[in-house]
């Protein structure tokens, strides 16, 4: 899937902090993402969800069970303006319903719903449409972080009546019990946890109508920032993706976008991206797909991606993934 909406560096920073405590440097985790050390020090930077997921993929390659520990560290304050809007909501139910209005600000890759089932509510995450190799990781990260948000809003652990997951039961279920503390079910239709619906009416300690109205308005504006360029970026990606074997120059691309080269460059910079970064993202995605065909020679893949020499493709793929194309196939 090609990612086109923006997000902050919050999740990336959390990944780096988590692995730093275990002695890992940032180089391996940032490989192929286009994010630099300098970017990490910029408070105003925006990145694409493709970049964020590349860092997560690197993290999973180092520790496949990292989703739940990361989720447990994603407190409501990790969500910036949205987090404060949730905290100042009148009731727990108000806060959850507000969260559902802004999935881009939550950074979720799922369709979130509150499903009433008798006397309980299921907080459900379904309809995953991203990298299949990261499905379990993203489900674990999503559900564990949602549980932490609930706990933070209430100021105490939300008692769960059950939790279910769409994937197979892993061999590290102790981490699931630590995250959810309830009966677990796997191979379900969705990812969800249940709680008594009476909690929805629970007043929040930090409720403040004036601050809440201000935060809601800021959420609306930030949501436009994160998603408003989605169609624009999507068109650029579409144009590039269709010509990877003969990639258009920045000037030609600008003509197709009906703007000047300078304007195109400025818009890309505003999204925290660049022409080369978008091209690298698309080439990397396509390369991973083509490498799955073991009968396709690597030099043919290089040609399909617009590289004049196989060696250039090999160097680029190592930069993107940390391994050579031939090793990626193993």
From TrEMBL:
One MF term in the entry's GO annotations: transcription cis-regulatory region binding
Record flagged with keyword Transcription regulation: yes
Ranges where the HTH araC/xylS-type domain occurs: 234-330
Alphabetical list of Gene3D superfamilies matching this protein: Homeodomain-like (1.10.10.60)
Keywords: DNA-binding, Transcription, Transcription regulation
Tagged with keyword Nucleus: no
SMART domains: HTH_ARAC (SM00342)
GO CC entries: cytosol
Record protein name field: Transcriptional regulator, AraC family
Upper classification of the organism: Bacteria, Pseudomonadati, Pseudomonadota, Gammaproteobacteria, Pseudomonadales
């Amino acid at each position: 899937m090609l990612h086109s909406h923006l997000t902050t560096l919050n999740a990336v920073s959390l990944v780096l902090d988590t692995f730093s405590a275990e002695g890992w440097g940032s180089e391996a985790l940032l490989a192929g993402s286009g994010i630099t050390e300098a970017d990490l020090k910029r408070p105003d930077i925006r990145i694409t969800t493709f970049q964020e997921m590349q860092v997560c993929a690197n993290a999973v390659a180092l520790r496949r069970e990292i989703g739940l520990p990361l989720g447990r560290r994603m407190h409501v304050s990790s969500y910036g303006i949205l987090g404060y809007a949730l905290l100042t909501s009148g009731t727990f139910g108000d806060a959850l319903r507000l969260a559902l209005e802004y999935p881009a600000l939550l950074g979720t890759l799922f369709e979130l719903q509150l499903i009433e089932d008798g006397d309980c509510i299921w907080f459900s995450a379904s309809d995953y449409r991203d990298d299949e190799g990261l499905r379990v990781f993203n489900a674990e990260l999503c559900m564990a972080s949602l549980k932490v948000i609930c706990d933070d809003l209430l100021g105490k652990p939300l008692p769960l009546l059950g939790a279910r997951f769409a994937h197979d039961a892993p061999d590290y279920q102790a981490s699931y019990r630590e995250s959810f503390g309830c009966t677990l079910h796997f191979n379900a239709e969705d990812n969800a946890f249940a709680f008594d619906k009476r909690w929805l009416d629970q007043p929040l300690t930090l409720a403040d109508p004036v601050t809440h109205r201000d935060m809601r308005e800021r959420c609306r504006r930030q949501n436009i920032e994160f998603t408003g360029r989605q169609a624009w970026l999507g068109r650029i990606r579409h144009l590039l993706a269709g010509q990877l074997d003969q990639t258009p120059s920045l000037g030609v691309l600008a003509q197709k976008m009906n703007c000047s080269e300078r304007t195109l460059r400025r818009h890309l910079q505003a999204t925290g991206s660049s022409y080369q970064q978008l091209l690298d993202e698309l080439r990397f995605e396509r390369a991973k797909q083509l490498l799955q065909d073991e009968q396709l020679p690597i030099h043919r893949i290089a040609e399909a991606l617009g590289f004049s020499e196989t060696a250039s493709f090999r160097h680029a793929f190592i930069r993107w993934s940390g391994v050579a194309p031939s090793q990626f196939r193993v």
